[in-house]
What does this fold into?
Amino acid sequence: MPYVTELKMAVGRMVAVRNATAVVVLLSVFSAGKCNEQVPLMMWSSNGFPLPSQSAPLAGASVSSRQLQSYLSTALSSTPQNVLLFLQDKLSVDDFTMYGGVFGNKQDSAFPNLEVALQSSSSSLLLPSVSSLASVALPSLLQEQMDTAPLYLDPETLAQLRLNASLPALLIFRLPYSSGADMMSTKEVLSGNDEVIGQVLNIMNGQSVPYTAVYTAFRPSRVMAEQPMAALSAGGRSLLQSRQKDPADPYPPVEFKERGSSCILLWAENLTISHFHSGKWQRHDLAPRTFGEGVSPDLEGSFCNRTHSRLVLNYENVLMYRSFKLIFEMSQRHYKVSARGWFSLDLVKLEYDGKRASFNGSRSIYAPVEFSYHCDSVTSFLYPQLVPFSSKDNANDWRLFFDDFQIQGFNVTGKDFSYASDCAGFFSPGIWMGLLTSLLLVLVLTYGLHMVMRLHTMDRFDDPKGPAISVPQTE
Amino acid sequence: LLVAWMMNGHAILYTGVTAAFWTTILVVGICYTIFDLGFRFDVAWFLTETSPFMWANLGIGLAISLSVVGAAWGIYITGSSIIGGGVKAPRIKTKNLVSIIFCEAVAIYGIIMAIVISNMAENFSGTTPETIGARNYQAGYSMFGAGLTVGFSNLFCGICVGIVGSGAALADAQNASLFVKILIVEIFGSAIGLFGVIVAILQTSKVKMGE
It folds into this structure.
């Protein structure tokens, strides 16, 4: 396998190289390809002309255009000026893993000539992860470095060329890549490319022309998609706060500002209300009118002061009602025993055409006053956190459903929620019950073990020097 | 000396378990404090969210098991003494069985209370603290308390009667007239188990689990 020896990087750059860097940076900005794709790059020189050793890039770090520039300038400062650039359409380190015979099956390797070349060269530079923008700009980089025009060739054309060891020459060989559905064709293509490399190197050796060779690609052949954090299936527990369904929440919360500063924040993924009317339940989805990028619901009637906050969401033509209001009333006070202030969502009121329905939420929707309250599901129906104010209240004909609900009514700074005190704690009641019972049983076990370990064989009458006890068989 | 003490298997086990326990508590407490999540440590939440059935059944289990531990311990102590003393003085065998019976009574108290308490467990359909209702919580905690009461009383009663009975057997082997006097001591020892049963019955007298 190729190895890279350590050496301190050369200091100082020529002005021309700095200008070239600017050109290269501009080129890489406009060139096609995503920034986060990496391709490997191999560089070796013919026998007798070692590359100056340079410090390898850190494991996992991707080499950028500027770094590649510096690697190349250092490498080409003392190596032959005939550069062979093998540019494949696509290449990844995975190709070497899959087709390089690395699992003990060297005879199946698709890169025999490449391996021989790397092993027989006196030194090589191996960069496993070069940004694809840099590799795409490689011809122009080398062109700037060596100040010659590139020649696009294939082995037949090269055989007819007369190369001079002292004149700089940049010879580029384009190699194809196919990632067809059946893997054999990819392996054949790679073997074919390796054959081309072998032929070119043989020609160069035959003409006794020292060379520097670079093998890389425009794009990676395999790109690993970033996996989003898996949301657990329904029924599994998960950290509700850190659910990564959307890494950045797509829309900001409903924000009520009093005198310019944010006072109340409300966010939910879904908001549905159901009304029991003329014998059946009718549903209405209010989320599109309340939440979303660029959606600003009417918050008239909201207010907040030091101890009370009220958020009023005004709608028109909801179900069969002309005017419809959804009101959240929160209050906070200081509690002496816990020595901190707590806020609670006291009432969720619906006012529709003069009638009103109230839900009481203070039993379960509360949090310390510095924090916000978050719960995965706030409903008045299933494991209800909102309970009708009384059994005769109109709220008994309504059902509210909030999904992924978060609210903060006090101590709001800016448009981000404070730390969310979640309705689901770390240990559920079942876990606590299990722990308690297990602890009790472990104590019992410990005591039992203690007793058993104190049993000793009686040795009071043992006499090691006396005669052994004999138990006669007969009477 | 410290090294010799530490080489003891018991010492290693107990120091290890104790250290693990206190370390866990310390680390959890420090984490709660550092992250200002002390409000999450809520004993009331624990008491209202855990099911009354757990408490009731723990009480029933403890009632019978602790009583049986006490009885077994007493019988083993007395029994070994009777058997040992009976080698040289066989006349003590029959009379001293009454000590064994006193110990066994303790186990009987335990099982009777366990059956009485378990008959009070009824089904209820609430799932939240409000719907479960105060009476069901009271039932659960009372059953737990009663089980503890009778269990621990019988545990120590059994040990006490056992040790006294053992002394009675050995004294009887020496001098037959001592036995009756020592029996008085045993009776006093046995009464404390009865106290436990009485208090447990009082605790569960107002239990009414169910809807």
Observations:
- Residues 134-174 of chain B form the longest helix (41 residues).
- Chain B has a mean pLDDT of 92.
- The radius of gyration of chain B is 23 Å.
